[in-house]
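B., you asked whether I could sanity-check this one before it goes into the benchmark set. Here's the sequence:
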Amino acid sequence: IEGSAGLYWKEEGESQRLVSQVTQGRLIGDMSVMLKERRPLDLVAMEDSIFLRIGATELMSVINSDAIVASSLLRSVSGNFMGVVGRMRDMRAYSSERGVDFTEFDAR
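And here's what the prediction gave me:
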């Protein structure tokens, strides 16, 4: 509801790596709830913050009963996914330009 936080990779033996900053109005953890999986990132407040926590059961109830909410969530997840695809494409191009060989990876 107010403040900001960071989403960090959980890396054993290393300092955490900031993946994304979370500001007012952003929904996080929704994919983990829908897939019934553990969240792959840690949320750490970057300043004094107040967040609204919605339980998994309550979130799924709203998604299942409200087409507008479900549609909005689908657009949000799709946008995030497309952003990740773009970053991966850019990282591959950057790495290839610097001599990284992807043939073994591509064969999978």
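One thing to flag: The mean pLDDT is 92. Otherwise nothing jumped out at me.
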